Amino acid sequence: MDKVTGFQVSNQRIMSSVSSAAAVQLCYEHLNGSCVKTPYSPAPRLILYTVFTFGAVLTVFGNLLVMISILHFKQLRSPTNFLIASLACADFLVGVTVMPFSTVRSVESCWYFGQRYCQLHSCFEGSFCYASIYHLCFISLDRYIAVTDPLVYPTMFTVSVSGMCIAFSWLFSIIYSFSLLGTGANAAGLEDLVSALTCVGGCQIAVNQSWVLVDFLLFFIPTLVMIVLYSKIFLIAKQQARKIENLNNRTERCSESFQDRVAKRERKAARTLGVAVLAFLISWLPYFLDSIIDAFLGFITPTYIYEILVWIAYYNSAMNPLIYAFFYPWFRKAVKLIITGKVLRENSSTVNLFSG
To answer: CA torsion, points 97, 101, 102, 106, in degrees to nearest 10?
Structure first.
């Protein structure tokens, strides 16, 4: 969610005071009211384009592989995996609609895609961020039920329940973000600041103190729910593992019961998705904290600090496929089948991904 920064405010002051100086570069050289451009030298510019473009490509193709895997292979079509596929869709859309345009903005320090898409860009950014966190929140609830009662879980968290969770995550996130930014409520009380910052080639979306608090609460509440649920999950998983170990030692069994195997599988899934939640929090929490601090201290964050925080958040969209690839053998096997084109074979959707 783009916001105003102190450096952008000073940019406008520089423009008004030294606009006649030959050294000043503008986003649009032949237009009055153009924003001041602060470009990087060639080497850093190339490095930044490479890093940001790599992030966008990894995000798009990584999450596309997750979606294809879950939707193509029948063995992966479970309520939890449908949530994961929908989460991957949100990350995929970040890679398509947000990251490429932010790459140009971050490197060139100018917005060349028009004011209308500037607003849409911010709406997409907000929508997909909140969609991700609410998907992760429902996934944590799903894992909590699965670990606490793995045998009853299939009747409690069904495909229809998963569908309702997905629908809520998308509808709430899109309606909130587009309503807030589309009506201009986010900038209420900041009209003078917005007017002072308006220039051709700029894309600054100001968010007032009231709405930045709402933004933070919509991030913090599901975050708190996830922390509580995963804390309970890992405590229960530890207790279950200890009970199974003690029982095995007493009975000297060489093989696990069906219930033991189910419990172990659910604990492993919870641990993997817990890593995904932790990665999300580490990526997005600094950005939200900075947004609150900035709104109450007069937008003092320098542009380069803001760009670092927002790209750390963007890169979270590329991390989940890497996490799945590291922890899930079935995902690695599915990706291999997709890349080699074996998914085009007849009956490929029925391949057993959990064998071998």
So the answer is: 170
Q: Which ranges of 149-257 would DSSP assign to H, the alpha helix?
A: 153-156, 159-183, 191-197, 209-251
**pTM of the full predicted structure?**
0.85
Helix axes 42-72, 99-108, angle to 10 degrees: 170
pLDDT, tens digit (0-9, with 9 covering 90-100), for 14-73: 344 444 444 678 998 888 889 988 878 899 999 999 999 999 999 999 999 999 999 999
338, containing H or E segment: helix 329-339
Q: What digits encode the pLDDT tens for the residues 87-114?
A: 999 999 999 999 999 999 999 999 999 9
Per domain, the residue ranges of the chain are 6-350
Residue type, 235: L
**Among the listed residues 297, 226, 203, the one whose alpha carbon sits nearest the alpha carbon of residue 3:** 203
6-350 folds as Rhopdopsin 7-helix transmembrane proteins (1.20.1070)
- CA-based R_g, the chain, Å: 24
Query: Which two structure tokens, joined as six digits, stand for 19?
Result: 């606009």
Question: What pLDDT was estimated at residue 266?
Answer: 64
Buried b (16+ CB within 10 A) or exposed e, 269-278: bbbbbbbbbe
Closest to 281 in 3D by CA, of 88, 137, 120: 137
Structure token pair of residue 32? 């009055």
